[in-house]
Amino acid sequence: MGNLLIILAIIADAQLHTPMFFFLANLSLTDTCFISTTVSKMLANTWAPNQVISYTACLSQLYFFLMFGMVEAFLLAVMAYDSYMDICYPLHYIMVMSPGLCVLLVSAFWVMNALHSLLHTLLMSRLSFCADQEIAHFFCDINPLLSLSCTDPFINELVIFTVGGLMGLVCVLCLKAFSTCSSHLSVVCLHFGSSFCVYFCPLSNHLAQKSAVASVMYTVVTPMLNPFIYSWRNRDIKSFLKKLMWARKSHSP
């Protein structure tokens, strides 16, 4: 609800039509999808712990979880760059962060991460699974599936570590750009830190519970914190909400 309210506020208020809020609206949209898919799966597992999922549905779930997670990571990175330009180069900010560039960046993120998720899904589909297996996780993630494979997952692991190295570079850039704001820095550290714990752990069943907890951190906790950190502490968002509440009171009988 918090993320949806942010999206409505940014659309309705012309003063919020800036690059930062444009990226924030896309981040809130991604978080809404992320939280909805994760929480619905967790509730389903709670009501029916021994659920059965088909092979096709498992790969589809893997695809969308990867895409939403990667899009959020890149949006955090571009928001870091936007904040860096606004603070360090205010005179060049309007020329650099033009509306066309913002739309191009967000579109490129969605297309690039859709293809990246498709790559992981196709690599997973080439693996063989010997028999009916129990996935030690609350959704179909890469490492739990690789641990059940009867085929050598070397190529899958190589792609994971290659992309992980690039994500590490993005994380370093985010830490540098967000160093002026401790709350933004905490979100970046929580999202990237939990992601690294999930995808860089060895394929071992005794780490399955820790991996599931870390997955909850970047699929649920971080998206739920974003409305508080990026919006409720923002004067423009709070001003719009006050106007909305005042208008509602003035029109009430």
Outline the structure in words.
It is built from ten helices and no strands. With 253 residues, it is mainly alpha-helical. The protein has a single domain (1-246), classed as Rhodopsin 7-helix transmembrane proteins (Rhopdopsin 7-helix transmembrane proteins, Up-down Bundle). Helix 2 packs antiparallel against helix 9 and helix 3 packs antiparallel against helix 5 (99-125). The chain is globular, with a radius of gyration of 20 Å. The model has no long low-confidence stretch (mean pLDDT 79).
Q: Would you spell out the secondary-structure blueprint of this structure?
A:
Layout: H1 2-12, H2 19-47, H3 55-88, H4 90-96, H5 99-125, H6 142-148, H7 154-177, H8 182-199, H9 208-232, H10 235-251
Summarize the structure.
By secondary structure, this protein is mostly helical. It has helices at residues 2-12, 19-47, 55-88, 90-96, 99-125, 142-148, 154-177, 182-199, 208-232, 235-251.
Q: Any key phrases for this structure?
A:
253 residues; mainly alpha; Rhopdopsin 7-helix transmembrane proteins; 10 helices; 0% strand; G protein-coupled receptor activity; G-protein coupled receptors family 1 profile domain-containing protein; transmembrane helix; transmembrane; GPCR_Rhodpsn_7TM
